[in-house]
Amino acid sequence: MKKKFSLRNANWEKITFWFVFSTLVASTIFSLINVILSPSGAVQHVKFQKLKTDYVLMLIQCIMGMIIMFLPSMLERRWKINVPGFMHIVFVIFLYAAIYLGEVRSFYYHIPHWDTVLHTFSGAMIGALGFSVVRLLNDSEKVDINLSPLFVAVFAFSFALAIGALWEVYEFSFDKLLGLNMQKFAYEDGTLRMGRDALSDTMKDLIVDALGALGTSIMGYISLKFKKGWLEKFEVTRYFPKENSQDTSPSELSDDPDRNNDAVLK
């Protein structure tokens, strides 16, 4: 007898992943076609027309997005870690909002503060990841080190700021090498920002990255200090296969401990 499909039992992690992936594949094809067909320079009497460089940026973002989507599963297999399903879903939705909605659908230009919201959210998300990084680096059977909640929170905050700064370096480098507009130093119609206005976008991104990371760090500090468990859904953990068992992929693990018959989470 076949089981009836229910929203509660649906594998939302896979559904979200393949929906976003197929969207990026279609956007990649769309971008590639327009890279070939679109003009290199502005056309007279045509307002806000996307140029070849705009579609090159779109193409690069879509390709990078598809590669990054497989990063969690690659890390799971390589480093024997388990990325929680909830965190994976949030990560994929963020890529959808940043790449498809932001670049392909031009939300960065048409939706006020779209970039600010995404940078704030990414700062908070990377800050949460910082807590897992501390745990994974400190996960040793040889030496037992008890780190204070304050130290872990400061590390998570610093980790998020470092990633945010590296992201701005990445955007600046691609803009310089390929003539793109990842840092949004120009408006949609190609008009260049001038003076302080040209600097404000990058500085605003770094500031909201810091604010998002600060919020997560404070919440994480309280969670560790008073054992609240607020960041458990974002906590990346190691897994250890049982003896005489075949290779177990972290993707086969469940958030429900009773269903993890092939591996033991630490």
UniProtKB/TrEMBL annotation:
Protein origin, superkingdom: Bacteria
Segments of this protein annotated with the region Disordered: 242-266
Record key words, sorted: Membrane, Transmembrane, Transmembrane helix
Pfam family, one: DUF2238
Annotated Basic and acidic residues bias: 256-266
InterPro entries, alphabetized: YjdF-like
TM ranges: 55-71, 83-101, 121-138, 150-170, 206-224
Protein name as annotated: Uncharacterized protein
